[in-house]
Amino acid sequence: MRVRYTRGQNLFNVFNLLFLTALALAMFLPFLNVIAQSFSSSEAIINGSVGLLPKEFTAINYQYVFSDHAIWRAFGVSVYITVLGTAINLIATASLAYPVSRPEFVGRKYIVMMVLFTMVFSAPLIPNFILIKNLGLMNSLWALMIPGAISAFNFFVMRSFFMQLPQELIDSSRIDGCGELRIIINMVLPLSKPVMASLGIFYAVGHWNTYMSALYYINKPALWPLQVMLKKLFETDDISIDPASSVYSSLAHTSPEGIKMAVIIVATIPIIMIYPFLQRHFVKGMMVGSVKS
């Protein structure tokens, strides 16, 4: 059946479409300019003639990036903390959110209040630094994954989702002889793919963009993630690889701007590619038909 909109609704839809289109262009056009600069020559970038399309097309900037072992090492560190850190986040958040979502769990209100307190009043930098140092996590990648294992906001989102699971499913599983662990693995987690996918992306983006924590707790350049490496490239123009006599090294010292833009693209594309694979899980509705009354 065709839906008929009123004049006011049509006007709102047109305004909403124009607003969202302008907002999307405001976010996409700068990114398109970065892509164009990454494929442009150093002379075109210095002259400021690069717009939305590359000028004097060249791929030497990416050849430099893919030849720099330091950038690849930082890329590997970012992948490592993103994959392992996201897994730790989801396991820890689900382990806390599921028990306090069940009505039979005694004391769940007090735990929720304590988590809410950490959400409103977060610990300052110096106590966090002292804690990380006393735990022996300095100059360790665990310092980027363990302290923020559970996000208070994501905890409440996951708890709300678990609370919507029909109690009849849990009770029927217990009648069939399933233990709590088996209920979680075989019943709760398969039905929780939408919230797991959504929060997994939030956690993964946070780990991939890790900068401040790495700057505070990591002093070894070999353990710097990609975002810290990118910031170091923008702070100084001292970009070089071995051997120093290579054509890439001379390119880096003459005009590093194209190399910086290429590193930005390399740091951005992987996390963007995750969204298409998890998009289908964003649509809720997996509970339809799971309970027959």
From TrEMBL:
InterPro entries: MetI-like, MetI-like_sf. It is a multi-pass membrane protein. The keyword Membrane applies. The keyword Transmembrane applies. It holds the Pfam family BPD_transp_1. The chain crosses the membrane at residues 12-32, 71-98, 110-130, 142-162, 183-205, 258-278. Gene3D superfamilies: MetI-like. Its main location: membrane. Keywords: Cell membrane, Membrane, Transmembrane, Transmembrane helix, Transport. It is found in: Cell membrane. Belongs to the binding-protein-dependent transport system permease family. This is L-arabinose transport system permease protein AraQ.
